[in-house]
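Data deposition worksheet. Section B asks for the primary sequence of the deposited chain exactly as it was used as input, without tags or linkers unless they were present during the calculation. Section C holds the resulting structure in token form. Section D is free text for depositor observations; keep each observation to a single sentence. Incomplete worksheets are returned to the depositor.
Section A, Depositor: J.P.
Section B:
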Amino acid sequence: MLEFFTGIISGTVSGTGMGGGTILILILSVFMGIDQHIAQATNLVFFVPTSITAIITTIKDKLINWRIGVPVAIAGVIGAIFGARISVRMDVNHLKKYFGIFLILITIYEIYSLIKQYIFEKKKA
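Section C:
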């Protein structure tokens, strides 16, 4: 049952384009005790169907900028090949640390964005 709710939460966040996979990896590794390598690989399996679903929805709503999306996707595939090769060879403790650093950087950026937006709106009013 925990797997179902994890999928619902991660899928919802993923469908909004905000990184449901990051939440999935966090839940699998921290709360479910799954090895970091396995959590990240599981995320890849999760990512394909949820991405396809989100892509179909956003195509219907005409929200995709294809001139930007296609080159980024191609470069992303190349990056994914390198990233997967690096990840498989990496010590799990290092992988956990790098994932934690990644989450901290995202958090700092989001807080900075909120503060910046708040200041902008305050000046506007």
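Section D:
The chain has one domain: 2-124.
Residues 2-124 form one domain.
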